[in-house]
Amino acid sequence: PWQLPQPISRPREPVHPYDTEGRVIFSSSSVSLLPPNMAALSAWFWNERFWLPHNVTWADLADPEPGVEYPKAGHVLSALPLALGIFAVRMLFERFVALPCAYILRIQTEATRRAQPQAILEKVFTSITKYPDTRRLEGLSKQLDWDVRRIQRWFRHRRNQDKPSILTKFCESMWRFTFYLYIFTYGIRFLWQSSWLWDTRQCWYNYPYQILTPGLYYYYITELAFYWSLMFSQFTDIKRKDFLIMFIHHLATISLISFSYVNNMLRVGTLVMCLHDTSDFLLEVRDQKSGRGVRGKCWVPLAPDPHCFLLLCGRH
After folding, report:
1. b/e for 251-260, b at 16 or more Cβ within 10 A?
2. Which pTM value belongs to this model?
3. Which ranges of 128-265 would DSSP assign to H, the alpha helix?
């Protein structure tokens, strides 16, 4: 059975998170030297009155009892190499797993009509606009001695060339579905043995002196690394209309996961991440049903609606 750590009683004195030379007290093993202006800015941002309970300092968390481990800011850096590993696994997964599955389901790349090579129109398309107005169409018609309808048809074919194929969408969506389902299963298995899943008050018991367990560490760092990999892959995937929105979303998610880890809000953080993962893998299946991915496949209509699922969870 799960046993909560006993409260640690120790004399606490108000310690500033930076010493007189600007060195970070609450960082990991290495002590970094900051310029005075950066030290002042960081000291303001990491103010103990905002991040920690009363009469608790960063120095208390940086010097735990023997055999006790607390989250440290340096731990989040280990997510970066893991993110590159996840990105490499994704490339292999899409090629050797998702692609054969797409062929089994008879999902193939749609044949699109390519636009006739035309340097002037290509320059307008790439550097000026993809949707020329009437005035520009008439100017191009006189310059090229083409009919306006022919120019409109060229721009329509050119736009269709940049649209992602159903096969590409399926491979990307299957990778996200697989990871979300895996991390959700791991989260449920881990939280099922924890006390704060059944009694949320345990999320704040003895805070912030809550021991970092290997399960908590792996859960958090894996989630953080996955969102780092999503941010990396945005620049290599097919550009979509919501590129900026998703970039801000990934950046906000990475910030929230990182800050909650540094502040040792791991218990409540695991509940939030598991709740989000509950809907994420369902949404990936739902995307196929909505027409952005696979159309007309027999298994897609069986996908449950994640919004109804979350509504039922909230009501109970």
Report:
1. eebbebbbeb
2. 0.72
3. 134-144, 148-162, 166-192, 214-233, 243-262
